Automatic annotation (TrEMBL):
It comes from the Bacteria. This is DUF4142 domain-containing protein. Transmembrane segments: none annotated.
């Protein structure tokens, strides 16, 4: 009987020890983001800008008949989808929650755009791309000063693509007038 008690005790201690040294860690819901306020604002603003470009690009693919406009729209959707996935990873790694919905201003822009057709649509879409990319490029330049390395590197990586988008949009817009 004494032998059975020692074996039972040893087994209980072994199980308790293994449970305490489990490699899986519980989530700490009290953790805070590792980004400063500017970093969080950048993630939120860049995420929404990307969603807007994707939605506008999808709209242009459906509504435009101009091959140059459609080509740019496809590039916008592809590039902003890839950039958005990368930004979502940075957000997740830094405990920032982003919404997959647009704010009133961006919703209204897309709503106004969806009411246009033909050449009016093409001009409005291209003007939207020029205006939005000018603002987004400024946003990304400010993010390059952020102390978070992942955010800074992301901004440095994506900025040249945004400049290509802006230059392409300007060229197409000038050809439409």
């Amino acid at each position: 009987m004494r032998k059975l008690t020692w074996i039972s005790t040893a087994l209980c201690l072994a199980l308790a020890f293994s449970a305490c040294h489990d490699e899986k860690k519980a989530k700490n819901f009290n953790q805070k983001t590792t980004l400063d306020d500017n970093g969080v604002k950048f993630v939120m603003d860049a995420h929404e800008a990307g969603l807007t470009e994707i939605n506008a690009g999808n709209l242009a693919e459906k509504n435009s008949k101009n091959p140059r406009v459609i080509g740019l729209a496809k590039m916008m959707v592809a590039d902003h989808t890839a950039a958005g996935a990368e930004l979502d990873t940075i957000a997740k790694n830094n405990l920032v929650t982003v919404a997959d919905t647009l704010t009133g201003m961006h919703k209204q822009m897309l709503n106004d755009l969806s009411k246009k057709a033909g050449a009016d649509f093409d001009k409005a879409y291209m003007q939207m791309m020029v205006d939005d990319h000018g603002k987004v490029i400024d946003l990304f330049h400010h993010a390059q000063e952020n102390t978070n390395a992942a955010l800074k590197n992301y901004s440095l990586k994506i900025s040249p693509k945004l400049q290509v988008h802006l230059d392409s949009a300007k060229a197409i817009l000038s050809s439409l007038k």
